[in-house]
Specification:
Elements: E1 5-6, E2 28-30, E3 51-53, E4 56-60, E5 63-67, E6 69-72, E7 80-82, E8 85-89, E9 92-96, E10 99-101, E11 124-127, E12 130-134, E13 148-149, E14 167-168, H1 179-185, E15 190-191, H2 194-204, H3 211-214, E16 222-223, H4 254-257
Parallel strand pairs: 6-16, 8-14, 12-13
Antiparallel strand pairs: 1-2, 2-9, 3-6, 4-5, 7-10, 8-9, 10-15, 11-12
Length: 306
């Protein structure tokens, strides 16, 4: 019997938003919970205009495998990535895939780190024809990328350390969509790009990425770009139980602190979930920078020593 059961479901688009978090639009459903999110260091952004897509546990015929976090080219100007997440309902863990849209929607309250602290996004904002990176929470090579700013309001040091829960629902994260996430969920979305699909397929062919082999410690945790270089700083080999996880420095998880939403989503001029331009022409990210990414590290939250 196969370890995964393939479901081809089309959920009615008219379901009420209040119950959206309880209904799981899935391609794969399993009865075993996904492993905890591993600790990793974010590589520097390789090209201007690329956006970070956090790593996640996918599921194949041999069980869960880790898809490395990676910098990718968005489909067009003004779009942001809403990560996918696992949800638990009725004894089944189902995967709701991520998507591109003008605003970041609900991603299960999962604290993926590097701007994705459980609600909203604090890693940057589209403005003036470019994507501006918040170096308080993301890692960029500032000798190559100059459109940056610092907004530490998205960092909350009271967040529970090493909160690495990877699914929403009973036994996991009890988050529900806030008003802005509900609105974002109703917007037009673009599914992941062919590059992103290929990235997951590549991870699924590497046995070292499977939890059954690596026991929750994948060999390749993050990459600078699809088909690029994996990132193996010495810090990622530290004790995973005591090392500050990058996601612990981002905004508090609303499921843990009872926070109804990310305060960065309310009146923060640096927040990309407000004032997004619509109908803008496609903006291609700049080409390969001369000399490639520099040695800078420390854009990840846990390098801040907080």
């Amino acid at each position: 019997m196969k370890k995964c059961i393939q479901f081809f479901l089309l959920l009615a688009l008219s379901f009420t938003v209040a119950s959206a978090d309880a209904q799981i639009s899935v391609g794969i459903s399993v009865r075993i919970a996904p492993p905890a999110l591993p600790v990793y260091t974010q590589p520097p952004c390789p090209y201007d205009g690329y956006l970070w897509t956090p790593g996640y546990w996918a599921y194949g015929d041999e069980g869960y495998f880790w898809v490395p976090g990676v910098w990718v080219r968005p489909p067009s100007y003004g779009l942001l990535w809403t990560p996918g997440y696992w949800g638990y309902e009725g004894g089944i863990y189902g995967w709701r895939g991520g998507y591109w849209g003008p605003h970041v929607g609900f991603y299960g309250g999962v604290n993926y780190g590097y701007g994705y602290g459980g609600s909203g996004f604090g890693g940057g904002v589209w403005r003036g024809g470019v994507f501006r990176y918040n170096t308080a929470v993301v890692n960029v090579n500032r000798t190559v990328i100059h459109n940056t700013y610092v907004d530490r309001t998205v960092i909350n040091n009271t967040t529970v350390v090493n909160n690495r829960t990877s699914f929403n629902g009973p036994g996991g994260i009890a988050a529900r969509p806030n008003a802005q996430e509900e609105t974002a969920m109703r917007e037009s979305h673009i599914q992941r790009t062919s590059e992103q699909s290929a990235h997951e397929q590549t991870a699924g062919r590497d046995r070292n990425q499977f939890a059954s082999v690596n026991h929750g410690r994948p060999s390749n945790l993050a990459m600078n770009r699809v088909n690029g270089s994996s990132f193996h700083p010495a810090a990622q080999h530290a004790n995973m139980g005591t090392m500050n996880h990058p996601m612990t420095q981002n905004h508090a998880n609303p499921a843990i602190h009872g926070n109804p939403g990310n305060p960065g989503n309310h009146g923060n001029p640096g927040n990309p979930n407000h004032g997004q331009p619509h109908g803008q022409p496609h903006v291609q990210p700049h080409g390969e920078p001369h000399g490639g990414p520099g040695p800078e590290r420390g854009g990840g939250d846990h390098h801040r020593g907080r």
